[in-house]
Amino acid sequence: MLPEIIGGLIEQFENKVQLSCRDESKLLSYIVAFANSGGGIITYRCENGYYFDKNSIEPPIEVSIFNQGELSYFVIPDGPLKPYSIDGKILLFADGRLKVPTRDDIVSLVKLPFRDVSSETVPLSGERFFDHTLVNKLRENLEKIWGIGISNVFERSGLIRDGKPTKTLIFLTGKRPDLYVAGAYIVFRSSGGEIEKLTGCIPELIKKASQLVLSKLTEVEIYQSLSLNRFRDCLNHILVEIIANALIHRDYTVPIPITISYLEKEIEIWNPGVTEGESDVPKPFSVYIRNPLLYRFAGLMGIIRSSGAGLSQVNKNSLLCNLNPIVFEKFHGGTLAKISVKSSIQSRRLNERERKLLDYIKNTGYITRKDYEKLMGVSERTARLDLSNLVKRGILRKVGKGKNTIYELIP
Predict the structure, then answer these.
(1) Dist CA 337 CA 326 (whole Å)
(2) CATH assignment of 186-344, among 3.40.50.920, 2.30.180.10, 3.30.40.10, 3.30.565.60
(3) Taking a C-beta distance cutoff of 8 angstroms, is the pair 300, 307 a contact?
(4) Mean pLDDT of all residues in 34-44
C-alpha cells in the first residue's frame, strides 16, 4: 500500500530530491526550501534511519513521514507561513538545487493577494490602541526571520500597509479589535442562562474563554479517570486549540460573534460563517485558510500549530481526557464543535467526602470498607451506609463478598 501512496504523492509535487545517510545534515535545509517553494517530497535512504531537530525550523511546519525499510519519504506541504528558516537562514529550491534568496525574493515570498478581511487596513493613529507586550513579542519573532537590520519590519511583513495597521495586527495585538471589526468578540453562555461578553485581542480572548469554561466546572464535571489538575490541564489544551482555530479561521465578513455554550454535560463552540471551498473533513497535506495573513502571523506568535497538527492534537487529547470524540459539524451557517464527557457520574453532584473518595480510588483502583473508615475518620456503620448509597446511585459497584469485598468505580 505504501508505494502506491507515495507514488500518488510524488506526482503532486514538482520539487523532489533523493538523499542518503551522508546528506543527513542537508535534510532540514531541503525541508525549509521546499516549504518556501511550493512543497515537495524527499526520498531518504539510510539503514540507520534519521535524526534531526525539527524545532530548529522557524516557524514550525508539519512534515508527514512514511517509512518502508531503509527508505523514508518526507512530504513537505507548501508552507502557509512563509518565509521558513533554519538557524536564521531562509532557503529556496529552484532549478533542482538549494538557493539563498535575494532581498527581492524574500519580499516576493511574503506577498499575499490582499483580499481577506485580515489583510484590510484600519485608519488608526497612535499607539494607545495596542498591547505593547504583544507588539514587542511579534517584532522579536519577525526579526528572528528577517534580521534586526531590516527597517520597519511590520511594513516589510505586510502587517502595516501605507502607514495603516492591518486588521491582523489589530487582532493579534490590539486592545479592542471588536471596536474596528464587527463580531470580533466572544459570547459565553453558561448552563444557568448567564451571558458574558469577552473582548480583547485573540491571545486575550483565548485565555479568557478557556479560563471561564474551566472556572465553571463543578466537582461532578471535572471528575474523569484523571486527577482534577491533570483533567483541567488536558481539557484546557483542547479548549485553547478549538477557540484559537475558531478565531483565526472564522468568517469576519459575518458580523456575529463566536458563541461558547457551557451545558451540564457538553461544551459547544460555534464559529460563524462557512465559506465555499471548506471541507467537512480536512484533506491530507491541505488546509483551507480563510484569513491567510492572520493565519501566518498567529502561527508565528505560537497561537496555533502548523497546518493539520491542531486537529490531530485535539483528537489525541480527547482520548487522554477520557472524553467522547470531539464532534465538528456545520450548523446554522457556521461550524459547531462539541466537547462532551463520558463518565456516567457526571450528571450527579458530589459532596466533599464523595469527591475525596473518588480521588482516592483514582490512585488505588478500588477501596475497601476499612480503608474508607480510615480515609474519612468515620465509624463502620457510617462507612457501610455511605458505600451502599454510592452503589445505589450508580457511582460505585460492589465486587466480591465478605472480607474480600471491594468497591470500584463504574466506568
Answers:
(1) 7
(2) 3.30.565.60
(3) no
(4) 88
